[in-house]
Amino acid sequence: MRISNILLSLPKTLLSSVIATLIFFSVLFYINDGWTNDRYFWSAIFRYFHVLSGIMWIGLLWYFNFVQIPSMPKIPDEQKPAIGKVIAPTALFWFRWAALLTIITGLITAYLNGYVHEALAFKGGAKNITIGIGMWLGIIMAINVWFIIWPNQKRALGIIECDPEIKAKSARTALLVSRTNTFLSIPMLLTMVAAQNLY
């Protein structure tokens, strides 16, 4: 099979990537004389999925704010329905589920590493406080996604029928809260990265 046949299909590309990842994982497992099936092993697995889903979530957040929203005024009116009816709903599907998965895998990772309570309560040293700030910022952002952005986007995109005034107000609310999440994402990412180098 030619490589282009794989790359022209998203499912085949993803399946091939998963297979390659499992091969790399097996090699790492072998050269490390095997990993113990303990909480540290599962912490590494859930941290991987936390980072993977976080990339999807923040990547789409930044796509909306750096690409789609600024580009909308430049798109001819007759072409805008393609964005509102096809691209945006699909992007919002992955956006909101990636947000939820990021929070769940992050909390599981924190639990497996034994600092979930301390971090959320800002107890302990600099590492717990720093990661705790990042965790709360992420939780606030995910709440914004599910309970403010998504309900307002459904009205703004016409997924739920409503009066034009409500539609316009919903679009503005979704924009402002999406920008709020963009604002929060930069310090949130700093705390997540910085905490790994603190004690």
Give descriptors for this structure.
199 residues
Summarize the structure.
This protein is mainly alpha-helical and 199 residues long.
Overview of the structural elements:
With 199 residues, this protein is mainly α. The protein has 2 domains: 1-34, no CATH class; 36-195. It contains 7 helices and no strands. It has helices at residues 3-7, 10-31, 39-71, 80-112, 116-120, 126-156, 164-195. Helix 3 (39-71) runs antiparallel to helix 4 and helix 3 (39-71) crosses helix 7. The protein is flat. The model has no long low-confidence stretch (mean pLDDT 94).
Q: How are the SSEs placed, and which strands pair?
A:
Layout: H1 3-7, H2 10-31, H3 39-71, H4 80-112, H5 116-120, H6 126-156, H7 164-195
Helix pairs in contact: 3-4, 3-7, 4-6, 6-7
Which residues sit in consecutive blocks of at least 5 with pLDDT less than 50? none
Helix/strand/pairing category:
mainly alpha
Number of E strands: 0
Beta-strand content estimate: under 5%
What order do the SSEs take from the amino end to the carboxyl end, as H and E?
A: HHHHHHH
Number of helices: 7
**Approximately how much helix is present in the residues?**
over 70%
Question: Averaging pLDDT over every residue, what do you get?
Answer: 94
